[in-house]
Specification:
The complex is a heterodimer. By secondary structure, chain A is mainly α. Chain A has 11 helices and 8 strands. The longest helix of chain B has about 140 residues.
């Protein structure tokens, strides 16, 4: 018992220490910046601003502040506006404008994005923070899966059991593969399982990377609606371009008496269109909410920090405890959301593969 | 709201990169893994089925074995019984054979003895007859040394002969 108490006491001391350290050099949540913003607007912390800055996309990847200087990766801006323009985002971020373009101010329709002088958006395919994160996680995913595939090519799986990376990846891959078999059917699940496995691993990997607070992670990719929309559209097109005759017949001419037919058809088409939207928003909202919760937990320290050292320590203990809890919860949610997205996709595909009864 | 309006740039990159990742993994990644694992699963289920069958066959074999042992035992008992019967039969037959043969032999010996005795008796009789004739001759020769005696005999003989002729 005595040992346990000592450990708990030690943990609290460490937390208090971390609290004071966090004030000085929070990675991704620079204390310096907080106070700058705080002093700017009636001495109040702009918590909403801090949080949205962390969950939204940006043209640079802010890593930390070192001795008052921000350490950030300035990513290339790529714009097509009467010809292609490629330049470092440092040029536009430092002054707020570059050439014909400027960063849209707060409250403008495209707040924080690069816009023309009249406030309209050019075709902007800049390598933003999320795009870089997407590239890195995609390379990581490719490496992980191709290395696993290489293990299976080089070893006789009939003779030896998988080790190392293959042992880690196999259960994940086979879980989705078997899910595809259950939901799509024995006949053609093999056509769809690669898409489902890719989507699952992609979402899972990016969810996990999103939880990691420092550089290679920390981008909120799966909490960005563009990302989840693309994933959902892949599912939508897979479902609706490879459906069977019966699927389309059930959709446009369902088996109901005359007058109900057009009504049912409208409902069916509407439900087919709503499915990808629900997929998009479910994943996006869950991941975004998780990130915001975590950031709020960290922000408690700074909100209560101005009431003195005792408050800071207390807030630190609470916020670290809740932070750990939410982090673990977030890991669980990362997996569950990846699983749900894949499972619903496979169910939708299975529904589009109906055969004549 | 920035939060819920999908950004064109990210949409573009997402389609391109996710498409590429999906294409590469669908071509070189997952089929290798799932194919191998499916193969292994099939192998495992096959092995289990074979093991079950073998188990069943084994139990059948045990039954068969027990049945065979039982049968063999019965066979053994039957053979032994038959053998002892055959033995008894052979012995008894040999005995009866021996008895009949012995009887035959005894009979034959008896017959032989009888014939030999008869022959011996005949021989003896002949010899006795010859002896008696010789004796008689000697006796006669002795008695008939003088002529009176010879006459007396002739007379008697002729008398006898005439008596027998008269009769």
């Amino acid at each position: 018992m005595k040992g346990v108490f000592r450990k708990i006491a030690l943990l609290f001391c460490l937390m208090l220490g971390t609290g004071t350290a966090l004030r000085a050099t929070t990675p991704g949540l620079p204390a310096e910046e907080v106070y700058v913003e705080g002093s700017k607007s009636t001495d109040e912390l702009d918590i909403g601003g801090i949080i949205f800055e962390h969950v939204l996309d940006s043209y640079e990847w802010h890593i930390l502040d070192w001795k008052g200087e921000p350490v950030a990766i300035y990513l290339p801006v790529i714009i097509c506006d009467e010809g292609w323009h490629v330049f470092s985002s440092r040029k536009i971020l430092e002054t707020g404008s570059y050439g014909r373009w400027h960063i849209a101010p707060e409250g403008a329709p495209h707040e924080g994005k690069i816009v023309r002088a009249d406030g309209t958006r050019p075709f902007d395919i800049s390598i933003t923070k999320n795009v870089l994160s997407l590239m890195m996680s995609s390379i990581l995913l490719l490496v992980l899966v191709l290395l696993t595939a290489r293990w299976y090519r080089r070893h006789d799986a009939l003779e030896e059991h998988p080790t190392g990376l293959a042992a880690l990846m196999e259960p994940l891959v086979m879980m989705v593969h078997n899910m595809a078999r259950e939901n799509i059917g024995e006949e053609d699940y093999r056509r769809y399982s690669p898409f489902l496995i890719t989507a699952f691993l992609f979402i899972l990997l990016n969810n996990f990377l999103g939880i990691i607070p420092f550089f290679p992670g920390g981008a909120n990719l799966t909490g960005n609606i563009a990302c989840t929309l693309v994933l959902a559209l892949f599912t939508f097109f897979t479902v609706n371009l490879t459906g069977t005759k019966h699927y389309y017949k059930d959709m446009f001419s369902p088996d109901v008496p005359g007058i109900l037919k057009p009504i049912m058809a409208v409902i069916e088409v509407f439900s087919a269109l709503v499915k990808p939207i629900s997929l998009t928003i479910r994943l996006f909202a869950n991941m975004l909410a998780g990130h915001i919760q975590l950031l709020c937990m960290v922000c408690i320290i700074f909100i209560l920090g101005k009431y003195g050292p005792a408050m800071t320590c207390g807030a630190t203990v609470i916020s670290v405890l809740f932070g750990i809890f939410l982090d673990v919860l977030e890991m669980l949610i990362s997996f569950i959301q990846a699983y749900i997205f894949t499972m619903l996709s496979s169910i939708y595909i299975g529904m589009a593969r109906v055969k004549a009864e | 709201m920035n939060l819920i309006t999908p950004d064109v740039g990210l949409l573009f990159w997402m389609v391109v990169i996710f498409g590429i990742v999906f294409a590469i993994l669908a071509k070189w990644g997952f089929p290798a893994i799932t194919g191998m694992v499916d193969k292994r699963n099939r192998r495992i289920s096959d092995s289990l089925r074979l093991a079950d069958e073998a188990q069943e066959r084994m139990s059948h074999l045990a039954e068969e074995q027990a049945r065979m042992i039982d049968q063999t035992r019965k066979e053994q008992a039957r053979i032994l019984r038959e053998a002892s019967q055959a033995r008894d039969e052979i012995i008894s037959r040999a005995r009866t054979d021996a008895e009949t043969q012995t009887a035959e032999m005894v009979q034959k010996a008896r017959e032989q003895i009888a014939t030999e005795r008869e022959a011996a008796l005949r021989d003896l009789r002949r010899q006795v007859a010859m002896l008696s004739v010789e004796v008689a001759e000697k006796v006669l020769r002795q008695q008939l040394e003088d002529s009176d005696a010879q006459h007396a005999l002739v007379d008697r003989l002729s008398e006898e002969a005439s008596r027998s002729a008269l009769n």
